[in-house]
Amino acid sequence: MTKPFPHTPTFMTIDEPFRFEGELFDLEVEGTIPDELDGTFFRVGPDQQFPPKMGDANPFNGDGIVTAFRFKDGHADMQHRYVRTDRFLAERAARRGLFGDYRNPFTDDPSVKNIERTVSNTNVVAHAGQLLAMKEDGPPYAMDPRTLETRQLWDWHGRMKATSFTAHPKIDPATGELVGYAYAAKGGDSRDIAFYSFDRQGRMTRELWFQGPHASMIHDCGVSERYTVLPMIPQMMDVERIRRGGILFQWDSKVDQVYVVIPRDGEAKDIRFFRAPNALPGHVINAFDDGGKVYLDLPVVNGNVFWFFPDAQGRHPDPSSLRTQVVRWCFDMNSPSDTPTASVIAEISAEFPHVDDRYAGRPYRYAFMQASDWTKPYNADKAGPIMGFFFNTFLTMDMNTGKTKSWFAGDTSSTQEPVFAPTRPDGPEGEGYVLGVVNRRAEHRSDLVILDAQRMDEGPIATVKIPARLKYGIHGNWVPATTFPR
């Protein structure tokens, strides 16, 4: 019999373990789903199937579970299924947690010593006929995009030699290439970084190895037509620290942000390292280049937002002291200077961005995000305490002006990452719909809302009712039906 989960913030309120797989056909809808929505919104997040071996767990340590919302002719169906990783299967066979602390193999049960540890819970990306469930500490797992059955650990038929792969690759809309990378690419806390690209058929077209200035987290990347930019976060890695029972990542306020700029067709000698004052670069909005200049847009926070990766003294800033700026960095590849210039587009606590994928890597105008609007009310008596990350608003941002149109989810609700679906393949940029899961915290269930991206402030045009609670997902993507023909 499975023992109870710990009563800790990782497993409380909206994030209580759900541990359920299933399908819901023809979900109830308030309003009208646009007929133009023809495709699938895939999302993934952590949902630990057994109580953690160590008694508690980092919130990013749960087993990956994928949700597919499928839209056709104004109807919506839903599938919800775990990624059958090697780790998942080992624990299911044992009926208990066997893997220890986050990215710490020294705390594992001896029986799983040679088993791949990744939980594939961070992003889910469609490419070359595969649905890839990803987490940056291991290779992806390939899944069937129609049934969500797990196919296999995916290393591109043995071509990828790195021990891990990013959860944030980018797909070039012109060529269909998937561009990605691995950090700590030889395992542990190595400084090795591997850069990869794969053509639209999934064949490797490039592998480039080099070393970074230090071993630290590189969670996301920006890809333009000619360059890839890797933001190195000042969360420093140390394997000896986890041997002693500590955590792998530790915030260092004395370390700069480092932006690694890689020519997509260059060699290791052509790579540039740009430095900016200590801060936390967040998820990449988009990147583009113009001549010899490379531009990268992303939110930057003035301190460490990861309370579970504190500094050496165990300190993390008071959430009220954190400030987020949406920044456009410019890296001049024709200048010998390693200092980029920054333009602040907006000062707003917004994150988890998406753009119109047809404009990925190109000059663009619109970004779609969620935000924490602390001017709005929150009814803790009904909805429960706020623990960890909290967002209550969806927004569309004009990247030319910094102006936004937003929708507030309500005083007992919180939001999850939104995605964008265009109205039609040849429509103008940003003409389409924003889809996002909303946690109805007082009711202990979820909805999926559909908003007009250009009229966000007018509220949902359709609300898909989910008669269950979806734990907080991390990332997802809209995939048109033409990607996986029925």
Folded structure, characterized:
The chain is mainly β. The protein is 4% helix and 38% strand. It has three helices and 34 strands. Strands 2, 29, 30, 31, 32 and 33 form a six-stranded antiparallel sheet that branches. A five-stranded antiparallel sheet has the order 1-5-4-3-34, with no helix packed on it. Strands 20, 21, 22, 23 and 24 form a five-stranded antiparallel sheet that branches. A hairpin with a 6-residue loop joins β10 and β11 (178-183). The model has no long low-confidence stretch (mean pLDDT 96).
Brief overview:
By secondary structure, the chain is mostly beta strands.
**Helical fraction:** under 10%
- How much of the sequence is in beta strands? 35-45%
Q: Tell how many strands the DSSP assignment holds.
A: 34
Radius of gyration: 21 Å
Largest sheet properties: 6 strands, antiparallel
Please mark out the parts with pLDDT under 50 across 5 or more consecutive residues, or reply none: none
What is the averaged pLDDT score? 96
Q: Span between N and C termini?
A: 41 Å
Secondary-structure content class: mainly beta
Please tally the helical runs, counting DSSP H or I stretches of 4 or more residues: 3
